[in-house]
């Protein structure tokens, strides 16, 4: 199956047009991200993927007050800065092994 140069160029132009359409679509989605006071909000799914935790663990962090959350139209959201603070507070420094604690 042979295609000539003009047909190839036409195909490539169509593909590039579709890439441009997808680019605009992605940029619009980024603009539509939820935010409050200029700060990005994450939903449950975002947080589960980001922290690699289960639904139950996320629920436990909410109920114990370790992770602040906001309810908007029945959906839960988390401020990105609160998530970063939660990660910093949860981080434990490694214990150095010495001869005494082996």
TrEMBL record:
Residue intervals of the Helix-turn-helix domain: 41-89
Entries under SUPFAM superfamilies matching the protein: Putative DNA-binding domain
Note the InterPro entries from the entry. Answer: DNA-bd_dom_put_sf (IPR009061), HTH_17 (IPR041657)
Q: Which domain of life is it from?
A: Bacteria
Task: Give the coiled coil ranges.
Answer: none
Q: Tell me the protein's name.
A: Excisionase
Recorded source organism is: Parapedobacter defluvii
């Amino acid at each position: 199956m042979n295609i000539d140069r003009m047909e190839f160029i036409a195909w490539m132009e169509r593909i590039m047009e579709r890439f441009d359409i997808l680019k605009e679509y992605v940029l619009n989605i980024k603009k539509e991200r939820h935010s409050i006071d200029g700060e990005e909000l994450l939903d449950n799914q975002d947080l589960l993927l980001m922290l690699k935790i289960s639904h139950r663990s996320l629920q436990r962090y909410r109920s114990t007050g370790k992770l602040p959350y906001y309810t908007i139209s029945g959906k839960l959201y988390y401020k990105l800065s609160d998530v970063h603070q939660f990660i910093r507070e949860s981080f434990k420094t490694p214990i150095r092994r010495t001869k005494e604690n082996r």
